[in-house]
Amino acid sequence: MSIRFNFGGDEHIFGEVSEEMSLTSFFTGLSMTNAVRTAGIRGVTEICPANASFQIRFDPDIVRPQDLLSELKSMEEAASKAAPVLKTRIIELPVFFQDPWTRETCLRFRERHQDPSSTDLEYSARINGYATVEEFIAAYSGQPWFVSMVGFVAGLPFLYQMVERKKQIQAPKYLRPRTDTPKLTIGHGGCFAAIYSVRGAGGYQMYGITPAPIYDPTRKVRYLADDMCLFKPGDIVKFKAIGRDEYDATLEEIEANQWQPTIRECTFSLTDFNSDIYGTNAKLMELINGR
Amino acid sequence: MAAKVISPGLSTSVQDLGRPGHYHVGIPEGGGMDRFATRIANLLVGNDPGAAVLEATFMGPELEFTQSAVIAVTGGELPPKLNGEERPTWESFPVKTGDRLSFGFLKGGARAYLAISGGIDVPVVLGSRSTYILGALGGHQGRTLKAGDELPIGEGSGKAGLSLPVNLRRVWNSPAELRMLPGMYWHRITEAAGNRFFEETWKVAPEADRIGYRFRGGTPLEFVEREQPFGAGSDPSNIVDACYPYGSVQVPSGTEPIVLHRDAVSGGGYMMLGVVISADMDLIAQLQPHTPARFVAVTLEDALAARAEQRAALARAEGYLAG
C-alpha cells in the first residue's frame, strides 16, 4: 500500500492511505500520525488522523514543505510495517434508541428524507436487511466500534463498527441536510456512526440519544475536566442500549455530577482481530462487563 | 475597566490570533479572520499583536466605556464614531469614561477589528481568548456579543494619534482573486470541469461566515466516473470522511464551492479541489456577499513567494509602528 501525499496549500500535507474505509487503512494512518508526533518535527502545528487518511499542518516559515514531505515519506515504510497493536481504552456509552427527541426531529424533517413514510430507524433496518428495528438496534449495540476520527465540530467522534465488511451497517445521508439535530444524537451516514457533540445542522440518519455529555467547553462535567472532549481517535466504544427509565436516572446522576462512563484500558491487536473478530470483541467487552 | 455593549452589531465576537493544536479533536484555530488587521489594530494601541480584539461583521457594535483608553479600528472600512463624531480608521484615538463608540455604514471590506489598549481580558481557554461560536468555547461566554454584555479590559498604555499610512494597508481588488493550489481530490473532476472552474467568475453567496465562504454562479462540476469506494457515500462528490485543511475548497454535490476559514469544520465527506493559499486567507475575510471572485491556480512555489511577500508587508507595517 502506498500513501497518496498531497500538499493542501502551503500549510498542510494530506495523506490518503486508501480511498475506501478499512480498519487496516485507519491503523496505517494512526501509525503515521503517532510517528510524526513522536518525531517532534519542528514547525509541525497540527497532527490529525482521520478514517483512512491523515493531515499534518505546518508552518512553512519553519520547515520547508518539501523537506517535511520527504520526512513523512521516509516514515511510511516503518508505519506500514509497524505491528498493528494499539494501547487504548474501551468506553461504554449508554444510548436510548428510539427516543422521543430524535424521533420528533426525524418527523419534522421528513420531506428531506429518502423515505418520508418510515422513520430513520425503520428505513435503515430495512435497507440493511433487518426484519425489525429491534434486531437492527441489537446489531448496532451488540459489537463495539472504533473511533476512527474526531472532528467536523469539537469532540464529535466518527465510529466504525468492528465487524466484517458484509456486516457493516450502511445508510445514505439525508437528501438535504436538516437544520437541526438534538445534542448527543447517535447518527449514521455511509458506514460511520457519529455522536453529535453539539446541537446543529446534520445529514446523518438519527437512531437515538446518549445522556452522557461528550464535549464540555466549561469543563464542569467531572470526566471532562481535564480534556473537554471525551473521545480520541483509537478509542473503542461499546453502546449499551438503555430505556427511558435508565436514561432519566443517568441524566439525574449527570446533573448531580456524579456519573461517569465505564472506561477500561485495553490493548487491541489488528492481527488477532482479523483472525477472530467476535472472539476479540468478546474479550474487549468482558473488560467493561466484568466489573 | 470595561466596555459595555449597548448594541452588538450583526455578528461581533472576541478574537485574537487563535488556538492551534486542537484540530485533531475538531476544535479549529479560530482567531481574527483578517490576521493582518487584528495585529495592526493591537499595535496601534500599544498592545501585543496577539491581544484580544473585537471582530465586527458588516455592521459595528455600539459600546460605552467605563474608563479612559486608547482604541483603533482596522480591517474593512467601517467608520468609527465617538459620541456621534466620525473618527479615522487605522489610527489610534482616546476614549474617556462615558464615551460612546458607534459605527457608520460599511464602505469597503466586510470585517472591522477594534482594539482597546490593554486588550479584552476574557478568560484564556486552550491558550486563546478567541470565540469558537459553534463549540460555545472561549471569548465572551462562548458566543457573539449581546446588548448588556460587559467586556473586561486589561491595563494598557497606548498612545493616541498613531496611524498606519495608506500605502502600508492591505488593498483588495474586484473581482477578488483567490490563489489556490489545486490538489487533494482534484483528480475526481474532468479536465473540462477543472478548466471552467478557474475560467468562470463566481460570486460570494450570503452563506459566508467564520466557518467558511460559499461561492455561487459557476457551472456545476463534472466528475470522473467511478464506483464509489466503500464507506464514501453515494454522491460522486463524497469521499470517506477526511480532514479539511484551512482554506480547502470543497464542492458538495459539485455545485457551490465552499472555502473553509478560521472556524473551519475540521473534517467531513466532501471532495476538495485544492486549498486557497495562506497569503489570501485575510482577503477572504474582507469579501462581502455578492462580491465577484475568481480562483487562480498557483504552484507551491508561488504560494510560498506570496507568503514571503505578505510577511515582508507585515514587517514593514510593524516596523513603521515600532519606529
UniProtKB/TrEMBL annotation, chain A:
InterPro entries the UniProt entry points to: CT_C_D, Cyclophilin-like_dom_sf, PxpB
Taxonomic superkingdom: Bacteria
SMART domains (alphabetical): AHS1
One Pfam family hit: CT_C_D
Gene3D superfamilies: 3.30.1360.40, Cyclophilin-like
SUPFAM superfamilies the UniProt entry points to: Cyclophilin-like, PH0987 N-terminal domain-like
Name of the protein in its database record: Carboxyltransferase domain-containing protein
Origin species: Mesorhizobium jarvisii
Phylogenetic placement of the source organism: Bacteria, Pseudomonadati, Pseudomonadota, Alphaproteobacteria, Hyphomicrobiales
From TrEMBL, chain B:
Superkingdom as given in the UniProt entry: Bacteria
Coiled coil, from the record: none
Listed SUPFAM superfamilies: Cyclophilin-like
One Pfam family matching this protein: CT_A_B
UniProt cross-references to SMART domains, sorted A to Z: AHS2 (SM00797)
PANTHER family associated with the record: 5-OXOPROLINASE SUBUNIT C (PTHR43309:SF3)
The protein's name in its UniProt record: Biotin-dependent carboxyltransferase
Organism from which the protein derives: Mesorhizobium jarvisii
Lineage of source species: Bacteria, Pseudomonadati, Pseudomonadota, Alphaproteobacteria, Hyphomicrobiales
